[in-house]
Amino acid sequence: MFEALVTLCALATGDAPAACRAVLLPGFASDSSTTCEAALRAAPPDWLAAYSWQPTCAPRPPPTLAFEQIAPGVFVHLGLIAEPDAANGGDVANISFIVGQSSIAVIDAGASRAIGEQVYLAIRAQSPLPVSHLILTHMHPDHVLGAEPLREAGAQVLGHATLAQALSDRRETYTTNFARLIGSQGFLASRIIGPDLGLVGPQTLDLGGRRLHLQPQATAHTATDLTVFDETSGILFSGDLVVDQMTPALDGSLRGWQAVLADLQASEARLVVPGHGGPLLPWPAGGDAMNRYLKVLETDSRAALDQGLGLAAATALIGQSEASHWRLFEQYNRRNATVAYTEMEWD
């Protein structure tokens, strides 16, 4: 099978040299290079107009992103527990795909177009079925910036009803920051795209003999959280509502997160794929560490307020008893403490 590839380059800026890479263009796959190139010339992606390029097609390359089959038809890529940088290319979030009898759904897309392309190749190494859906669990860039090539492969992009506006409001900040963190070569041709459909209530997807239940959640980790439950395997895909090893990031509501987590732990799921770490935890026990951390944020914030501590003094203390239990604690806890303290100040 032949795939369309276009070599694109980012111009040198400052101390950064020019960076080039072969960008994969899903949607033009064919059993001959001639047919593939003709289709690419006839209807290239609109965004390519910003580049100088020549159509080319080559045998489909093997994927470089590793996926583990954790249950029949359920594949998960384990992201690193690390901050995005040029060395890891932003590969820091878990990504999953689920294979039904008639189509495939992907859950989250990674931090760059390059990662999204590798997700597509990993899927094609497992199945020729159409990629019907891409489900984005929330707005954070390490989960959404790889979405475009999966849409080009035919996926309808789904997310919370609030996701489109959240991404629009943060587009410039997210793309600027991740281009700086990952570097021009790793981030080349990456763009934020909004969902094709925002969900205001539950929705069920039928992949052919396999049903996924999508549930937009109240404000918790963020205001854009959405969970996926696979009936067949009994696995809950939580996004960052559940994380393992990596310090949770509070970008929404502490009280809301506690309530949503309690609801999820009372659900019929028996296993969970967290947004980071794992990649597979028992459920509901897999949420116990999260519950403990969130309770510490609540208790410490209340104590700081009762003692009359100001924000700066309080955030230096809140959550510190949890430091030994989580990685990247210093990067996330103080911000979590600020959000928790501020929210509880108005209780």
Structure description:
By secondary structure, this protein is of the alpha+beta class. It folds into three domains: 1-61, no CATH class; 62-291, Ribonuclease Z/Hydroxyacylglutathione hydrolase-like (Metallo-beta-lactamase, Chain A), CATH 3.60.15.10; 294-345. Helix content is 31%, strand content 23%. The strands form three sheets. Strands 4-5-6-7-8-9-10 form a seven-stranded mixed β-sheet. It has a six-stranded mixed β-sheet with strand order 11-12-13-14-15-16, with no helix packed on it. Helix 7 links the parallel strand 14 and strand 15 (271-274). Helix 7 runs antiparallel to helix 8 (288-306) and helix 8 crosses helix 10 (329-345). The radius of gyration is 21 Å and the shape is globular. The termini are far apart. The relative contact order is 0.11.
Short summary:
By secondary structure, this protein is of the alpha+beta class.
Features of the shown structure:
alpha+beta; Metallo-beta-lactamase, Chain A; 3 domains; 6-stranded mixed sheet; 7-stranded mixed sheet; 347 residues; single chain
Beta-strand content estimate = 15-25%
- Cα radius of gyration in angstroms: 21 Å
Query: If you consult CATH, what is the topology of the largest domain?
Result: Metallo-beta-lactamase, Chain A
Amino- and carboxy-terminal Cα gap: 60 Å
Going by CATH, what is the homologous superfamily of the largest domain?
A: Ribonuclease Z/Hydroxyacylglutathione hydrolase-like
